[in-house]
Design brief:
The protein contains 10 helices and 8 strands. The chain has 226 residues and is of the alpha/beta class. Strands 2-1-3-4 form a 4-stranded parallel beta sheet, with helices on both faces. Strands 6-5-7-8 form a 4-stranded parallel beta sheet, covered by helices on one side. Helix 5 packs across helix 6, helix 5 packs across helix 10 and helix 8 crosses helix 9.
Length: 226
């Protein structure tokens, strides 16, 4: 299916680029990447940097990307999504949030489940949005949040191999004696999750798989629009 579309991608770290490029390789979609790791660093480390300042910065970034002749904008950082205030935007380009397709899958699971994070700073906003999403769908959730401690700094330092190893170790330990369905909440965790899936035949849901279907559907709809 040839779409010949341009997708603007806003990332908080360079490691997310390969995930998106590889996932969309079978489709005729040109990805234009914009990366800003400094914003989340300031949010976490600068007590004088207000949430309203961060929201304004995200607004500026999205409006800048919209001027790059893109057909849609993808936000791959869950913290960026949390900071987004769409009512303040002056653009009409569709915005695809990385976690909403993932939320749809989570909300349609009937049994208890575990969601894994490596970045503690993203848990509050993500879970708040997940519960809001569930309420809109009239779904109830039974979720245990698990944090893989002391790992997120590795990916922010560019030490992806070590980062993946720590996630693989934790996932393998968690699923050994636990049949509870599990998923990883962050894009940066997908490679490790897929490795454990391959090694154990245990399904580990991730945000990338449902996201690709959403991106293709959105861009196909844009192509058909008059």
């Amino acid at each position: 299916m040839a779409l010949s579309k341009r997708l603007g991608c806003l990332h908080a770290h360079y490691s997310n680029i390969d995930y998106i490029e590889q996932a969309l390789a079978p489709f005729d979609i040109e990805c234009v990447h914009f990366v800003d790791p400094a914003l989340m660093h300031r949010v976490i480390s600068d007590p004088n940097f207000k949430e309203s300042d961060a929201q304004h910065k995200v607004k500026e970034q999205l409006e800048w990307i919209a001027q790059a002749n893109v057909d849609a904008i993808l936000i791959t950082c869950t913290n960026y999504v949390t900071l987004l205030r769409e009512e303040h935007l002056s653009i009409t380009v569709p915005i695809i949030k990385i976690d909403e397709p993932y939320f749809d899958v989570i909300c349609h699971r009937q049994q208890p489940q575990k969601i894994l994070f490596t970045n503690p700073a993203t848990i509050g906003g993500t879970m708040e949005r997940l519960h809001h999403h569930a309420n809109r769908l009239h779904k109830s959730l039974d979720i245990e949040v698990v944090v893989i401690d002391d790992t997120f700094d590795l990916i922010m330092q560019g030490r992806k191999e070590e980062y993946d190893q720590e996630i693989v170790k934790s996932l393998t330990h968690i699923i050994q004696d636990d049949m509870t369905p599990i998923s990883v909440a962050q894009l940066s965790m997908v490679d490790a999750a897929r490795q454990v899936e391959f090694e154990t035949s245990k399904i580990i849901m991730n945000p990338l798989t449902p996201l690709v279907a959403t991106i293709v559907r959105q861009l196909k709809a844009e192509k058909s629009a008059p």
